[in-house]
Amino acid sequence: MPNLISELRLTAMTLPNRIIMAPLTRCRANNDHEPNVLMAEYYAQRASAGLIIAEATMVMEGNSAFWKEPGIYSHTQISAWQQVTTAVHSAGGRIFLQLWHGGRACHPLLNRGIQPVSASAIPILGDEVHTPEGRKPYVTPREIADSEIPAIITGFKIAAENAKAAGFDGVEIHGANGYLLDQFLRDGTNKRNGAYGGSIEKRARLMLEVIEAVSQVWGSHSVGLRISPLNSYNDMVDSDPVGLTRWLAKYLNDYNLAYLHVIRGDILQKQKGNVITPARADYKGILISNQGYTPEEAESDIEEGIIDAIAFGVPFIANPDLPLRIKNKAPLNQANPATFYTSGFEGYTDYPFWHT
Asked: 14 has which bridge partners?
């Protein structure tokens, strides 16, 4: 019977355990969106994860939403990421890069005045973005034209090529949490007509075309996808999240992906529902679930076959040796949210390891 610390066979590799490090935006890159030595240390500390999924990383210049998030579109960024992948591999780990486009979550103050793009001209309401000039309201995005979409797809493909050059073991496509691909996928933000709007099939088209383009670089067996059908973060909603999950889970079976990574709920608790059960019923590949799991719940769900692995977020921030602690039922360090998005090592690389 599988459990959290048993091996998991992906198509392209075997993971030593089913304790996945979820992608966590930590804003430690420099002003040119280049990773650094501190980030290499941070990820290497967590190399005992079955798989590290590195943070949301810009596939194209001019699409920053976090100010100091990393990118993978320049030669200097590729070289900078190489120090991260080398450090993780030297520590015995495996690491995927999360490919990401922020869409309407981007802001002109972070992108030399460039207006963000989205599926439709609908802004994020009820929240603000951190900028060099302080917190600012999100702006209304420009509805991207169908003729511009091939350039987005090419951007993801080039980013996938760059991730391979940087030494990653695979990539995860970020189709969750209200960023560009998710903005096209869910009907609360996609009000367009034509080839990329209307039915689920058309709203999912951009995401599927990105998967196909990235798979040309890596082979689909080294490509994961993250989705969040229920999550209202970034002012998101869909009229039928369960139906959306079912349709996508069935359709993705044809792609032979490394995994499907599903955020199971809504971090803001505005929307309720169960998307893991339909995902499990309809998706035949490796299913990873994320959000708010305790080790005990994760163990139970894996043993019952509800999911194949769990992606832990906050517990990995505070516990670089999380698999060891879970295996030994050791106490967990508590994370300090005040340092989640600051700069420097505090709250980043200074959490203690467990000692028997």
From this structure: 9
Residue in the block written with tokens 């990574």: 261
Confirm if 62 and 113 have CB atoms less than 8 A apart.
no
Model confidence over 69-118: pLDDT tens digits?
A: 999 999 999 999 999 999 999 999 999 999 999 999 999 999 999 999 99
Tokens of 51: 């798989």
pLDDT tens, 19-37? 999 999 999 999 999 999 9
Domains of the chain are: 8-339 (3.20.20.70)
Cα–Cα distance measured from residue 106 to residue 113, given in angstroms and rounded to the nearest whole number: 11
Q: What amino acid positions are annotated as catalytic residues?
A: 179
Which residues, listed in sequence order, are joined to residue 290 by a DSSP beta bridge? 263, 311
Chain centroid, CA 224 distance in Å? 9
Q: What is the DSSP string of 302-339?
A: HHTTS-SEEEESHHHHH-TTHHHHHHTTPPPPPP-GGG
Contact 290, 259 (CB under 8 A): no
0.90 surpassed by pTM = yes
Contact (CB, 8 A) for 203 and 190: yes
How many CB atoms neighbour CB 113 within 10 A? 8
Tokens representing 133 are: 């000039």
Computed over its alpha carbons, how large is the radius of gyration of the chain? 19
Question: What is the residue whose two structure tokens read 């980030």?
Answer: 39
